[in-house]
Write a structure and sequence with these properties.
By secondary structure, this protein is of the alpha/beta class. It has 7 helices and 6 strands, in the order αβαββββαβαααα. It has helices spanning 3-7, 23-35, 84-95, 124-134, 139-146, 150-164, 169-183; strands at 15-19, 39-41, 49-53, 64-67, 76-78, 100-101.
């Protein structure tokens, strides 16, 4: 967050850079920002917040509100069809250092843990479950082999999916194999 943004009161006027590849959309978003009482500045100018239509500018360091994009690393992610009051609230929130998400912004499945959140280590039991998944075993067969309940197997499988960012057993095994290849250090 810029020093200027940190010094502004939550209801103060913010300098907002609007980025939209389509000229009509840029004009419409600029109008929404101006009508909310903010100052519209160029993308290259000093701005407190950047409002982007779709995926924004790569390498942007200022707080960003993304409309309809897939950049979930942005502090603000709204629907492409967000209303003026939602856009204004998101601009103010991200300028204050908050994170804004509309309910549909998060995928319904298990998302991969971010590497910046600390390396997602697999527990010894998860590694055992992963090995049995690689053999193509069912949950019931895994429970019998590892002498754990069916419920516990399901818990470990879901945890593996979440940590590896996988949606299927095959994808989990493939991602673990790929990850192991990158993490192996040759001495």
């Amino acid at each position: 967050m810029s020093e200027a943004a940190g010094k502004l009161a939550p209801m103060g006027r913010l300098r907002v850079a609007v980025y939209a590849p389509d000229r009509l959309r840029h004009t419409a978003l600029s109008r929404v920002v101006a009508e909310a009482g903010h100052i519209v500045v160029g993308v290259r100018d000093a701005a407190d917040v950047v409002l982007t239509d779709g995926d924004g500018l790569p390498g942007e360091t200022r707080p960003v509100v993304t409309l309809g994009g897939a950049d979930y690393d942005s502090p603000g992610v709204l629907s492409r069809h967000a209303g003026a009051s939602q856009i204004d609230a998101a601009i103010r929130a991200v300028s204050a250092g908050l994170i804004v998400r509309w309910p549909g912004a998060i995928d319904a499945g298990f998302g991969a843990m971010r590497e910046t959140d600390g390396h997602a280590l697999l527990t010894p039991r998860e590694l055992e479950v992963l090995a049995t998944l690689a053999e193509g075993m069912t949950n019931k067969a895994i429970a019998r082999r590892l002498n754990i309940s069916l419920h516990t197997v399901k818990f470990h499988v879901e945890s593996l999916f979440r940590k590896l960012g996988a949606r299927t057993r095959t994808e989990a095994v493939a991602k673990a194999s790929e990850r192991r290849r990158y993490e192996t250090i040759t001495l």
